[in-house]
Amino acid sequence: MGRAVIAFGHAELDTRSKSTQDRRYDLATQWKTKEAFVSFKVAAQARVTVGRMRFSDPHKWVADLAVDGVHYGHKGKQQVTEFAVFRGTGDVTASYLMAHHGRVMDQNR
User: Fold this and answer.
1) Distance (Å, rounded) from C-alpha 36 to C-alpha 19?
2) In 1-109, where do the E strands start and end?
3) What is the per-residue pLDDT across 2-53, written as a single tens digit (0 to 9) for each?
């Protein structure tokens, strides 16, 4: 969408059918939006992201969660600052307010 605006979407469509010797069941279809967001560049190293964001652990397939909300992140040379307001999706629908500040060294936090 341009250098300052990034949009991303990731959806999952699940279709299943079942049949036995006596009966055939209807096709079941389920749609799940895993991620759908728009991110705006507000400064050289800062972005505001709005929409459904996904948090997952690449080493544990069971750790996969999506939240709807707004996220602000700024990465400096030696520090990172983040603020977010979001609501859980699916089974957990709690609301959250997050503030995070940390140190950065190359690619390590």
Assistant:
1) 35
2) 5-16, 28-43, 46-57, 60-75, 79-88, 95-103
3) 679 999 999 989 998 888 888 888 888 888 888 899 999 999 899 999 999 8
